[in-house]
Amino acid sequence: MEENMDLEKKLNTLLVTIFQDLMDIEQKALITGEFRDITLNDMHVIEAIGTGEAGTSSTVAKKLSVTMGTLTKAIDRLSKNDYVLRERSEEDKRLVLLSLTEKGKRAFYHHQKFHEEMIHAMVSQFDRQEAEFLARSVDGLISYFKTNKENYTGGDAAKG
Fold first, then answer.
1. What is the predicted pLDDT for the residue at 1?
2. What angle, rounded to 10 degrees, do the helices at 68-80 and 40-49 form?
């Protein structure tokens, strides 16, 4: 029983450390050089917009679980700094479509490369079976978060 508590404490410490280190390292690795004029949150907005066809602002807000007001502030900053193009839909003028500029695409790929390198560094430590076990474990944790999201957001996952 005590061994189980020690293991749970260790896992908790490891998860908290991973989260804190990831946020810190991601900030230092991504918000450099050409991309010094945005925040890590802005980089995640860029990631949510993606490099495909223009998407609606409401779709991006939903992906990020933020309010439209929160997204609008970020898009204002990203538009001003030439990362995001904001256009009204030709078919429905009420819709605002978001797409990345060339600078925004460079930021997107910069972010993507960071994550690819991080995942490669992690997976290279394991054989195939261990990596699959890790993936199942992380998937189980994500399922727990999704199932319990309302408990932690007061039922409003769009609060930002």
1. 59
2. 100
